[in-house]
Amino acid sequence: METLLHYVWKYKLYEPANFLTNSGKRFEIIDPGIYNSDAGPDFFNAKIKMGNRVWAGNIEIHTLASDWYRHRHNEDAAYNSVILHVVERLDVPDVLDASQRAIPQWEMKIPVQIKANSLFLLSSDLPVPCLSKIREIPEIYLSDWKNALLAERLERKTNALLQLLDEYKGDWNEVFYITLARNFGFGVNNDAFERLAKSLPLKIVLKHRDSPLQPEALFLGQAGLLENENPENEYYTKLQKQYVFLQKKYNLKNLEPYIFKSLRIRPNNFPHIKLLQLADVICKKQGLLSEILETTDNELHSLFVTELSEYWLTHYQFEKISVRRPKYLGMQAKQILLINVIAPLFFAYGRKNRSDRYAERAVRLLESLTPEKNGIITLFSRAGIAAGNACDTQAMIQLKREYCEKKKCIFCRIGYRLLTKPPV
Fold it and tell me: What are phi and psi of 421, to 5 degrees?
């Protein structure tokens, strides 16, 4: 309930009533302050006018006034700067700070419709509690909210990339390699593919890029997929020997093969195929990041053109022969990589180098891509939120994962509109 109190205070949604403290002093809220999600008072730098004086300081908010003592704020000097204690119910008449100063208290009233709507949103078991009400929201608000959500999603991905950049001492090629590898897992194998890339340094891969066999041996061997002691074909034996040699040379420790999942996924997404396609993409790029930055928007799909060796035309795994078929990345797979690898990379590169050019290019790329197809997009589309391109679908994914799933309805702009409507 305190979250709702914070929200009502921040946006001044409380009932218009007499603003009187517990001691009967009239006051005026000039500025609610800045919300603090870390330790300390809930709002910093607030301003209230009491009598003829303007007080500047912090605000602490609780459901019950007695929570001040239960949280032991009376023993913490960090709360000596509180100028107003805002509560839903005054169950104790006075509270004191660590200096024994009495803190003015105000019993804030939440409008009935806001409380009713918030309970409906926060207590619902539906994946998106407000789904049936989204059509009531004017399109202009939805459009603005989608733009903000897209920015949030790009910011989140940028922060992850820049953290990785720090970890690898400013090596953008390594960042691209690890990010690309993760997304070659296409969901179910993302974590496993990222682990593999981190266990197999890019510089080792690039040293052997001109060999027709060694990159395959490195990726399959590092994934633990070359541990059969009784191989039944010459190709497998060659890969195994190559990996054993390279493993000893570079002191590599392969991963456990069971972390790479094959159940309930299409054969073309089997780990063997995706690992070899990843190896092919990496080994074909001369400068990796520099080549990507120089590629025109219309040619970005060509970054993911792959060609596997003859053996894999008739195999998805070792030993099991399949119908002869080329194994390449389809348009949908390429689009996933453009959305989740290239666009965030442009955005992060622009942020790091203080260049709006690349940030704008990231958004332009997403605008040029068709809407993604998954359960989240279908859910919102049926509710009336249209998706015209990948910008819209990335916004929907951000909305579902960061707001709906985390029950942060009152911080969502759709939730804000619904909170102030008559009770649902």
Answer: -85, 165
Is 415 exposed, middle or buried (CB count within 10 Å of its CB: 0-12, 13-18, 19+)?
Answer: buried
Name the one residue in this structure whose structure tokens are 């990339």: 161
DSSP conformation letters of 208-239: TTT-SSHHHHHHHHHTT----SS--SHHHHHH
CB 227 within 8 A of CB 205: no
Q: Could you tell me if residue 155 is inside a domain?
A: yes
3 state SS of 328: coil
Residue-wise pLDDT for 262-312, tens only, equals 888 899 999 999 999 999 999 988 778 889 999 999 999 999 999 899 999
Average pLDDT over residues 102-127: 85
Residue 88 has phi, psi (to 5 degrees) of: -85, -35
Q: From residue 423, give the alpha-carbon distance in Å to each of 120, 343, 390.
A: 9, 41, 34
Same domain, 211 and 302: yes
Q: What is the CA radius of gyration of the chain?
A: 28
Count of structural domains within the chain: 3
- Are 213 and 294 within one domain? yes
Domain region containing 50: 2-110
CA 63 to chain centre: 31
Of residues 54 and 137, more confidently modeled: 54
Whether residues 145 and 8 fall in one domain: no
Strand partners, 89: 64
Confidence bin at 231 (pLDDT 50/70/90): low
Q: Return the C-alpha torsion angle 327, 333, 335, 337, nearest 10.
A: -100
Residue 423 has pLDDT above 60, yes or no: no
DSSP letter assigned to residue 337? H
Q: In this structure, are 275 and 226 located in the same domain?
A: yes
DSSP code per residue over 112-172: HHHHHHHHHHHH--SSSTTGGGGGGS-HHHHHHHHHHHHHHHHHHHHHHHHHHHHHTTT-H
In the chain, the percentage of residues whose pLDDT exceeds 90 is 74
- Hey, what are 398's tokens? 């951000």
CA-based torsion, 53, 55, 59, 60: positive or negative: negative
Task: Output the pLDDT for position 424.
Answer: 47
Residues 217 and 159 in one domain: no
